[in-house]
Amino acid sequence: MRLTRSLLNLTRMKTKKIKNVYDAALPASVVTASKLLTDGKVIGIPTDTIYGLACSANNREAIKKLYDIKGRNEEKPVAICVSDFSELKRYGNANHLCDELLEKLLPGPVTIVLNKSEHLTNPYLNPGTVKIGIRIPDFNFIRDVCREFSQPIALTSANKSSERSSLNIEEFNHLWNSLGGVFNGGSLSNSEENRKGSTVIDLSVPNEYRVIRQGIGYEDTIKSIEEYGFREVL
Predict the structure, then answer these.
(1) Residue range 127-151: average pLDDT?
(2) What architecture is domain 18-232?
(3) DSSP character at residue 4
């Protein structure tokens, strides 16, 4: 009897621990993630590089919560994630970038930094800069969530500041209790190289680029943008 009760208590503990973990492979998880974002929650979500923490970019309280969970200085920028090029152009000023170049870079492990558009209305989103990093990951689940949510999603790596980035959900399980949901996309890579995250490149000025973070897509990114006549500014 005691053994049975002990096993029952252990089962309850495990269930409580993973009650907000969802299988990203299930179609219903897209709707669940979108609802959580609508409700102002921060969620853990897989991308094409590492796991991220995500929330509604135009929700003031959600952004503050994201920074609090991350343990991050509010003046340090976060990126946003969108589903396609039309959304990228809606939230970032990209008129000087041709479609052919964008199609070479995205979707993929690249964050393009542009000047914010008037459609990013949250004063708590990167308050110290007029720029915004924009991602279109090469990962169906997060892009489907972006389409379902139909608003920009703030995105940063799923770890406390100064911790290493996460390739599976167990690596950030100490954050689960602070999140509205965790969406399990399995192990994203067996390579430590993936922990570098996306290549972050500033293309806010016509014909110029500045590397902010090399990331895992660095060489291909630089090759592509230099083919289109961009020169590096240090």
Answers:
(1) 97
(2) Alpha-Beta Complex (3.90)
(3) H
